[in-house]
Amino acid sequence: MLIMGITVREALRLPQLEGAVLVGGEQGLDRIINSVNIMEVPDIGNYIKPAELLLTTAYPIKDDIRALENLIPELNKCGLAALAIKPERYIREIPEIMIKQANKYKFPLIKLPNSASFNEIINPILTEILNRQAAILQRNEQLSKALTGIVLYGGGLAEIARTLAGLLGLPVSIHDPAFRKIASWLAPRDFGADNNRALAELVNDSKQLAEACKCGREQLVFNCAGGLYAICRPVTVAEEIYAYLFIWGPQKPISEREITGIEQAVTVIALEISKQRAVFDVESRFKSSFIEYLVDGKITSKEDAIILAERFGWEIANGFTVMLFECDDLQSLYDQEPVFARKKRLKIMEIVNTAVVSLSPGSAVVERGRRLMVLHRPLPGKDIKQLRRNSETLARSCCEELAKRLDTRILVGISRFIADPMKIAEGINQSHQALEIGRRAYERGQVFHFDDLGVYRILLTSDAAEMQRFYDDILGQLVSYDEENKAGLITTLEMLFANDMNLQKTADALFIHYNTLRYRINRIQQITGLDLKSPDDRLSLQLALKILHMKGN
């Protein structure tokens, strides 16, 4: 709520209060006066409002010592700005207890001269308040027109920050939901070399800003050399935080008067970000269509493909690595809460796009179904191995950022380097296989490269019917027996191979007795008809286990 009044300190500077003396509560001089009232009855608590300056001769309670003692605590509890007493006619002097209470509650207590006229005090204070209200409304209108004009005429967040900072005379910064700076204007006021340097560092320190905002307070204090204050406002649309607006100030707290119109700024920032999202959404659909045309062979010229990609800011002429991102729980979310799932998918797109633009400009980011696809371009002069390392680093960075901001697990499949952009379908197939097989065969992983699939690459190229027959012949009966009897023989077999057929290590890993393991081995050999001492039989069993993982069982 905007405060359109004057402080007690400012009121005491008016000519009509020239003879007034502050006798207590000096630390409350910055309390705001929004109105003036006169105490005419003893039970004044029923007739006062917060932020009022109360004038009195103390006549209604002149003979009631207890009422005099309780007056300041009661007024303070009601949120009054100050009490001004003209004591000489009825109580001679202001009681010492009232002065002590004024200091205790930091409640300004003012002694008026006997010649003071209440009307002559009320009128100039109310006039000053009305003048300030008019000035504030005028500046609000000016601010609203300026900010709205920026959006209407195509200005961005940087222009909004510059304009707002100029109108307020205070530094302004705009940050994304993770408190990373997206626009700022820090020039309007010089806070001194140390604070200027501290401010320049603070607006880029997302961790410190996030930590400071955890307290939930509107005004934040930063312990720099001279001290910096900030007011932080979330930019929210439909309960989703789009951004944060910071207004920065010097050592003293920033008053609401200095930043009136900030709500208009928040609204305009929300409009600008909504506009950016709408444009981004349309561009995403065009990008997705281009990729589908390229995959389906509807774009037959490599030169045309390169030129069209350049219009989106993509560099595909020198090839790329295809990366597919998939949210682990997105499908179940679509089934249960489709609206929330769409918001989450868009958020994933935004976070990945920001990371890719920052770490690998020229790379493509596009939606493909409910997955996100990145065409990661190679850095000039880097070999294929380095490109793979760069792709994996980028994928892990995105996974870490998504886990931090959305608390969600993302899986990434990465293809080999695709030198010819016309062979994008090959890269998509490889990254899809890396993602699907990685999900089933390597449960703890998040980033899977096609080259890491090992023997799965051979199995993927095999005849599906023949591979199923091989699996049924080698492992089918053992899987059926395990399902019926819960014997744990498949797990035992996997642990044997994982421990290079070392029986003692396998027994320890399974937390079973050595003899129990020998019994299980015998059952495996009886059911499969294979000998675990035979290299050929072991290879057959290992291949069948790989097929089992591919099946996702």
Automatic annotation (TrEMBL):
Superkingdom as given in the UniProt entry: Bacteria
Pfam families documented for this protein: GGDEF_2, HTH_30, PucR
Protein name per its UniProtKB record: Purine catabolism regulatory protein
InterPro entries with a match to the protein in the record: CdaR-like_regulators, CdaR_GGDEF, PucR_C-HTH_dom, PucR_C-HTH_sf, PucR_dom
Domain Purine catabolism PurC-like residues, every copy: 11-129
PANTHER family found in the cross-reference section: CARBOHYDRATE DIACID REGULATOR, DNA-BINDING TRANSCRIPTIONAL ACTIVATOR ADER
Domain spans labelled CdaR GGDEF-like: 301-437
Family as reported in the entry's similarity comment: Belongs to the CdaR family.
Protein's gene: pucR_3
Domain PucR C-terminal helix-turn-helix: 489-547
Gene source species: Neomoorella thermoacetica (Clostridium thermoaceticum)
